[in-house]
Amino acid sequence: MMKTFLVGAETITVRTSPDLEAAGAQGLYADADGSILIAGTISKEAQESAFCEELTHCLLSRCGRPGLNEDHTFVRPFSAFLYQVLKQGGFFK
After folding, report:
1. φ, ψ dihedrals at 36, nearest 5°
2. pLDDT at 46
3. CA dist., res. 32 & res. 43, Å (int)
4. Domain that holds residue 34
5. Residue 77 domain-assigned?
6. What confidence category does residue 24 fall into, taking pLDDT thresholds of 50, 70 and 90?
7. Number of folded domains that form the chain
8. Are the C-beta atoms of residues 69 and 30 closer than 8 Å to each other?
């Protein structure tokens, strides 16, 4: 899977990584190169959820909110609500 989209004027690239889960993560947002990596070895639902969490990190970074970006007591529930809305709204197929 490889997809791209814009956040403001920045292109964000989303791709799966077979090595990410072995490193102890399901997802990763790399601000330096504008990429979101998702573990390719986890279930489809876990990939969707991980995407929402990394998208949250991406958006907070683009908004200049490093404090919120690093605050997982905010990021995790926010991304869980985002996933719920996108899933129920049929945005994930």
Report:
1. -115, 125
2. 96
3. 27
4. 2-88
5. yes
6. confident
7. 1
8. no
Distance between CA 11 and CA 64 in Å, rounded? 17
Between the CA of residue 7 and those of 20, 25, 45, 63, what are the distances in Å? 24, 24, 24, 10
pLDDT > 80? residue 55: yes
**CB-CB neighbours of 29 under 10 Å:** 21
Type of residue found at 40? G
Rounded CA separation 23/79 (Å): 21
Instruction: Give the whole-angstrom CA distance, residue 86 versus residue 18.
Output: 25
78 is a domain residue: yes
Q: Is residue 58 part of a domain?
A: yes
Question: Distance between CA atoms of 75 and 93, rounded to whole angstroms?
Answer: 24
Q: Quick check: is 93 in a domain?
A: no
Q: Which amino acid is at 43?
A: S
Write down the pTM of the prediction. 0.93
pLDDT score recorded for residue 1: 66
